[in-house]
Known about the structure:
There is one protein chain. By secondary structure, this protein is mainly alpha-helical. Helices cover 41% and strands 0% of the residues. It contains 4 helices and no strands. The longest helix has 13 residues, at 15-27. The N and C termini lie far apart (52 Å). The relative contact order is 0.07. Mean pLDDT is 77; it is low at 83-91.
Amino acid sequence: MSDGSLTCFRHRVTALGRRRLAGAQARGIWPAHVFEGSTALKDRRLARTLDNASLPSGLGRALARMGRALDSDHGAGGSDGPDHGSSGGGGGGGD
C-alpha cells in the first residue's frame, strides 16, 4: 500500500495505519465485526459458519495482485519481480 499504512517489506501496520484504523473505528464507518471479528456478530449461527469457513488456496495472492493492479501509483510497465534492470543478452558467435 502506497499511502504509508503498511510497511513496504513485511506489510505490517505502521503507526499511521493504526491511527487511521482507530479513527475509522471511532467514526463507526465500518461494522463492528470488521474490527472485532465474528464475536461481534449477534447471529451466533452466522458467526459459527464464518469461523468454520476456509478460504480457497491462493486467494490472498490473487487479491494482492488485483490490489497492485488497481493501485494508481503502480506503474503500467513495471516489473513484479525484484530485478528491475537488465543484464543484457548473451549473444553467441559460432559456427
